[in-house]
Design a protein that fits this description.
The chain is of the alpha/beta class. Helices cover 49% and strands 12% of the residues. The chain folds into 2 domains: 224 residues, Spore Coat Polysaccharide Biosynthesis Protein SpsA, Chain A (Alpha-Beta Complex), CATH 3.90.550.10; 69 residues. It has a 7-stranded mixed beta sheet, sandwiched between helices. The structure holds uridine-5'-diphosphate (UDP) and magnesium ion (MG).
Length: 320
């Protein structure tokens, strides 16, 4: 299998026929062995019935049906797990993404990139509730993850299979796949893509998503920088806090013991005690984190590195 197109579907009944036709038209002519994997994320409308018909009529269609609504990120994960293609393209099920952009993304992968990410440079969504928050979030994500993309939220992306198969996604994290994958060391290309207004059905999201995305960003940042060495961040701040607290306490102690300055009217003493406590706690958290990291990697026999290739020896299991 060369290509799997993974599409999450939640209450998109009115889009499905056109969607299947457009995606098929875009990939059928490419001379690739392909499949279209629809993940029905617990739709309450006719979506599943329609998908069933599509799957009966076209052997290229695969349908995975969730028992309930688990969210777009989970749907995409399930799509990855159930797909067979060497290349995986993800897109929305509402035709806001244009399947005719798929060949452009594939061309980028052929150039040697591991991920080709769509950029909706002319996004067709409301400004205040969608585009503005998304612009701010994109700027923040770029700065914090150091993976510079204009549009993390665009679902239309193409991945080499090895990029996604080892990534576990939680929360709203599908948009962070490029950032998480950058941990493995990947080459990412950005491709301007077409974006269209929703034709039928309603958007499943509002302003609230931005908040969830920012919270997930904190997790991703941590995973990116310190996941394998928590003591180095918690310990560092613990030393700083504890050190400042200790010096402050020492200063008061010297004043009290040798100069007879009373301690009763010194609020700074409280601060010193607080800082010492915080310091001890941060260092302890770092140590507990170090234990967790070992459990995390060793129980799953995950290597703490990824290998692109090995020369002079048959490829080993590590890092693939
Ligand atoms: N979606 C999903 N599960 C959800 C919410 C959305 O599978 O809980 C799918 C939805 O059917 C669509 C895609 O995710 O195919 C993007 O959703 P939507 O178009 O509502 O997002 P927007 O384009 O407004 O950001
Ligand atoms: Mg949409």
């Amino acid at each position: 299998m060369d290509l799997s197109v993974v599409i999450p579907i939640y209450n998109e009944a009115d889009n499905l026929q056109a969607l299947h036709a457009e995606v098929t038209a875009a990939v059928a002519g490419l001379d690739l062995d392909y499949e279209i994997v629809y993940v029905d994320d617990g739709s309450r409308d006719q979506s599943f019935a329609l998908l069933e018909k599509i799957a009966q009529a076209d052997t290229h269609a695969v349908v995975v049906r969730f028992r309930r609504n688990f969210g777009q990120t989970a749907a995409m994960s399930a799509g990855f797990d159930h797909s067979l293609g060497k290349v995986i393209v993800t897109m929305d099920g509402d035709l806001q993404n244009d399947p005719r952009d798929i060949p452009k993304l594939l061309a980028k992968l052929n150039e040697g990139y591991d991920i080709a990410a769509g950029w909706r440079h002319d996004r067709q969504d409301p400004y205040l509730t969608r585009k503005l928050p998304s612009q701010l979030a994109n700027g923040l994500i770029s700065r914090i993850t150091k993976v510079e993309l204009h549009d993390y939220g665009c679902t239309l992306k193409a991945f080499k299979r090895e990029v996604v198969q080892n990534i576990r996604l939680y929360g709203e994290m599908h948009r962070f796949i490029p950032a998480i994958a950058s941990l493995m060391g990947v080459h990412i290309a950005e491709v301007p893509v077409n974006h269209r207004p929703r034709r039928a059905g309603v958007s499943k999201y509002g302003l609230g998503r931005t908040v969830r995305v920012v919270l997930d960003l904190i997790t991703v940042k941590f995973l990116l920088t310190y996941a394998t060495r928590p003591i180095q961040i918690f310990g560092l701040w613990g030393l700083v806090a504890g050190g400042v607290g200790f010096l402050l306490a020492l200063y008061y102690a010297v004043q009290r013991l040798f100069m007879g300055v009373p301690l009763g009217n010194k609020p700074g003493l409280l601060l010193a005690v607080l800082l010492i406590f915080i310091g001890v706690q941060l260092i302890s958290i770092g140590l507990v984190g170090e234990m967790q990291v070992r459990t995390y990697y060793e129980t799953q026999q995950k290597p703490t590195y990824t290998v692109r290739q090995v020369l002079g020896r048959p490829p080993s299991k590590s890092g693939d």
